[in-house]
Design a protein that fits this description.
single chain; alpha+beta
Length: 335
């Protein structure tokens, strides 16, 4: 989009993606779930002095999309209205004057992200997080992770109506989260690092359709489905205990148990099962679908980098898209 910049950034920020480790679908029925930060994919934002420093407008560049425009062009309904919405919420929350492009007139904002869109990895919450952070950093403000999370949650509400609060909490804190829908969202302490390989089947599926189908099955046979959900509850609580005790590397069998239940619930797919079996054959100690299922992503637990490389190679050979390895590390907090 542009030549190399000679000027240093006035403010920078980054944020991770997220993945659901256990409890998806059952979470709709009051069962806890666990979500993890994914530092293997990130969003980044940087603010520079603009070429026309006395301008009252903010120039925005999105290098990944090869797009460049001014904030004044962004109206409600614009495909990048999230930028305007995030700045508006952040300015109100942080009590910053809102004239001259929310105080950013004459500046240039660059936002990049390696987090795939609409893949259940929290791309929307991540870009809102970096935008809120870079804005706060520019004004020398130091909002806590919880405050950034609140800003992003307000932005998420504009897009999703009633979001679970998971994406903004995991991403703003950069830490795993244990949550019960409409009851609690707690940041988990990680006792020791563990690693996952994540792969996208490339198959897209509508979350609301999968959730709706599970609802129909539950209504037809509530006893059986409640039994499945109760088993998921036990799995999630065991995984939580193990992560906090530093036994994250030993949760593999529980991930497999959760996957088998998701198959019974009806949200797996031939592609996901092929990936799960392939990962286990290549040395992963556990593997399961992540999120809505019927496509999308799967995660495999790997004990070391060498195993991770073997698993990644296998998943790529099976047609895996955007395959990568990420570490869940107690020392990697929000930036």
């Amino acid at each position: 989009l542009r030549k190399m910049r000679s000027s240093a950034a006035l403010a920078v920020a980054e944020a991770c993606g997220k993945v659901i480790l256990a409890g998806e679908h059952a979470v709709v029925y009051g069962v806890p779930a666990i979500a993890l930060p994914v530092w293997g994919k990130q969003a980044k934002a940087a603010l520079y002095e603009g070429e026309v420093s006395n301008s009252s407008d903010l120039k925005i560049t999105l290098p990944d999309l090869h797009e460049e425009f001014s904030l004044s062009e962004v109206k409600s309904g614009h495909r990048h209205a999230w930028i305007l919405e995030t700045l508006e919420v952040a300015a109100q929350y942080l009590k910053v004057p809102t004239e001259h492009s929310y105080g950013l007139g004459g500046k240039e904002l660059s936002v990049t992200s390696t987090i795939p869109v609409a893949a259940g990895l929290g791309s929307g919450a991540a870009v809102a997080t970096v935008l809120a952070r870079v804005y706060a950093n520019y004004f020398n403000l130091s909002p806590s992770p919880s405050e950034i999370s609140n800003i992003v949650y307000e932005v998420e509400k504009l897009h999703h109506g009633t979001p679970s609060g998971v994406d903004n909490t995991v991403i703003a804190h950069g830490q795993p989260v244990y949550f019960v829908r409409d009851v609690c969202t707690k940041v988990l302490k990680v006792g020791a690092p563990f690693s996952l390989v994540i792969a996208d089947t490339g198959v897209r599926s509508e979350t609301k359709i999968a959730v709706g189908d599970v609802r129909k099955c539950y209504e037809k046979d509530p006893a059986t489905y409640q039994g499945y959900f109760n088993e998921v509850r036990d799995i999630v609580d065991s995984i939580r205990d193990m992560i906090e005790k530093g036994q994250g590397n030993e949760i593999g069998p529980l991930m497999i148990d959760n996957q088998r239940l998701l198959e019974k619930i009806g949200v797996s797919s031939p592609e996901l099962e092929l990936f799960v079996e392939g990962a286990l054959e290549a040395g992963a100690s556990g593997a399961k679908l992540c999120g809505a299922g019927r496509g999308g992503n799967m995660a495999a637990l790997v004990k070391d980098e060498e195993t991770g490389e073997r698993v990644m190679e296998k998943l790529r050979s099976l047609g895996g898209k955007g395959v990568f390895m990420t570490s869940i590390d107690p020392n990697h907090h929000e930036v």
